[in-house]
Specification:
Arc Repressor Mutant, subunit A; DNA-binding transcription factor activity; 2 domains; DNA-binding; transcription regulation; Four Helix Bundle (Hemerythrin (Met), subunit A); about 230 residues; mainly alpha; WH-like_DNA-bd_sf; 3 strands; 3-stranded antiparallel sheet
């Protein structure tokens, strides 16, 4: 009987407490809610998550391996703040991976997905023009737009690679977006998103790639000017 069931039933994925903590903490870091340089402890994370330190330690070890957290000499943890050289390397990798994903998505994208990406662009535009910017919601709208595009390429391994590289700089987004001297009306992203949507409608792979690369490059240029990178 067991052998028959094995052929008929799919194995269910076992989700551990550590897996859940890893996923929740990863999403928190991706949201930009925790600023770069912020220190955290295993005990503090365990208290916030209402769990024991053991699964937190397991989840944290994975995040350290991915570069989303860094271990300090005293066994504490810190959200990384990249130096200029590392930041520029990350930006170059982002341009390659995300530009490629955009071009590949155009080859297979359907009208419904284009409409969904346009809706995310409009939400980002709306949030960016409010009298008071909610940085976390605006970052989320931007992330939804980008990953709706990348996922449309139908290349899950590529999406995972992009997520992993975002993890290393996502904390910088909110610091840059929240600065008073950068008026939201002047954000270059609005124009880049419009050009992206237009390229998607026309199924222009190179136009979509260029819009994404320019969006990344202009945001990176501003982040460099903020002084939020580590000094080595």
């Amino acid at each position: 009987m067991d052998s028959i069931l094995q052929g008929l039933l799919q194995k269910q994925e076992r989700i551990t407490v550590a897996d859940q903590i890893y996923s929740e903490t990863r999403q928190l870091l991706m949201s930009g809610a925790v600023p770069p340089g912020e220190k955290v402890t295993l005990r503090g994370l365990a208290a916030v998550l209402n769990t024991s330190p053991m699964p937190v330690r397991e989840a944290v070890n994975k995040l350290v391996a991915e570069g989303a957290l860094e271990m300090l000499p005293n066994r504490g943890l810190r959200v990384p703040k990249p130096d200029l050289a590392k930041f520029r390397e990350i930006v170059r990798i982002r341009c390659c991976l995300e530009g490629f994903a955009a071009a590949e998505a155009v080859r297979v994208i359907d009208d419904a997905t284009v409409a969904r990406i346009q809706a995310h662009a409009r939400e980002f535009d709306r949030l960016g023009h409010l009298p008071r910017i909610d940085a976390l919601k605006t970052i989320e709208a931007n992330r939804n737009l980008h990953f709706a595009l990348y996922e449309a390429a139908g290349m899950p391994l590529l999406v995972t690679m992009i997520e992993n590289i975002w993890l290393q700089i996502a904390p910088l987004f909110s610091l840059s977006m929240g600065r008073k001297e950068r008026k939201s009306e002047s954000w270059e992203s609005f124009a880049h998103h419009d050009r992206l949507v237009d390229a998607l409608r026309r199924r222009d792979a190179e136009g979509a790639r260029q819009a994404v690369v320019q969006d990344i490059s202009d945001a990176a240029e501003y982040i460099e000017k903020t002084g939020n990178l580590a000094n080595i």
